[in-house]
């Protein structure tokens, strides 16, 4: 399974170089930008930076917080948390190319001291028990079949009372998901949980579930607005286009239909360790 996931997100060549080239083609110098400017590059979960800020407000972070971002991708969530709370964030991702690009982007933005990125498996985290004050995962668990291990590991590396937020795409009641999707070109690497399964998994891992937020309607409105100018507007994330090429247009249309028909949901779960 992990080989297929790595291949899906790897693309070809240096991802950081391709991102820099795409930005410069638009007249933008990467090192002159801010973390917020990178939203279309590194926060390609539903509702982007706005969703990250909402989740951050639930986590009640301080400058002293040590935070783990599970499935960090290009590091957008990690940098937003580090920038807004002043905390240190460690990101972990299965795909080496994403980790390398995340570290390079942090370097462009002068955030290497506040963020670090480690290649590793969410179901076997390379960190000590109780190493973090808070943890977050955004749109990562869709590729992980052993979610019980993922959430058990998240619980293990959190100190008692630490906060955990899971923001993911879930299986809805409207029928089977449509593929290709941004996280899976075909169903074999897609593993969507239902909301009830998520509650059972999180509680089974030892978390206390404090709050559940269904943001599906907001995600649909967001995606409709971003594609209103005809299929996939320029606002569609640069990185998604670089990774998936022309197939991204079909992915967007499949997501629009799946959200409208509630085949897929976007939900957040706030928990206490």
From TrEMBL:
Domain of life: Bacteria
UniProt domain Methyltransferase type: residue ranges: 68-165
Gene Ontology terms for molecular function: methyltransferase activity
Biological processes per GO annotation: methylation
Signal sequence segment: none
Annotated keywords: Methyltransferase, Transferase
Entry annotated with the keyword Transferase: yes
PANTHER family found in the cross-reference section: GERANYL DIPHOSPHATE 2-C-METHYLTRANSFERASE (PTHR44068:SF11), ZGC:194242 (PTHR44068)
Annotated protein name in UniProt: Methyltransferase domain-containing protein
Organism: Leisingera caerulea (Phaeobacter caeruleus)
Lineage: Bacteria, Pseudomonadati, Pseudomonadota, Alphaproteobacteria, Rhodobacterales
């Amino acid at each position: 399974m992990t080989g297929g996931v790595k291949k899906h997100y790897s693309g070809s060549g240096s991802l950081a170089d391709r991102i820099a080239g795409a930005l410069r083609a638009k007249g933008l110098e990467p090192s002159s930008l801010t973390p917020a400017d990178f939203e279309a590059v590194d926060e390609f979960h539903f509702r982007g930076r706005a969703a990250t800020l909402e989740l951050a407000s639930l986590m009640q972070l301080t400058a002293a917080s040590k935070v783990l971002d599970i499935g960090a991708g290009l590091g957008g969530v990690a940098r937003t948390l580090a920038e807004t709370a002043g905390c240190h964030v460690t990101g972990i991702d299965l795909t080496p190319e994403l980790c390398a690009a995340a570290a390079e982007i942090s370097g462009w933005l002068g955030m290497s001291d506040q963020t670090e990125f480690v290649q590793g498996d969410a179901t076997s985290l390379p960190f000590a028990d109780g190493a973090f004050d808070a943890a977050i995962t955004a749109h990562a668990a869709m590729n992980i079949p052993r979610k019980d291990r993922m959430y058990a590991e998240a619980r293990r590396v959190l100190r008692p009372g630490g906060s955990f937020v899971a923001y993911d795409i879930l299986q809805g009641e409207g029928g089977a998901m449509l593929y290709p999707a941004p996280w899976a070109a075909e169903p074999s690497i897609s593993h969507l949980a239902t909301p009830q399964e998520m509650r059972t998994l999180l509680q089974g891992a030892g978390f206390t579930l404090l709050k559940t937020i269904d943001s599906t309607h907001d995600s649909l409105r967001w995606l409709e607005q971003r594609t209103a100018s005809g299929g996939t507007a320029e606002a569609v994330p640069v990185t998604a286009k670089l990774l998936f090429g022309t197939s991204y247009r079909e992915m967007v249309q499949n997501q629009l239909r799946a959200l409208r028909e509630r085949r897929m949901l976007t939900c957040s779960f706030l928990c206490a360790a």
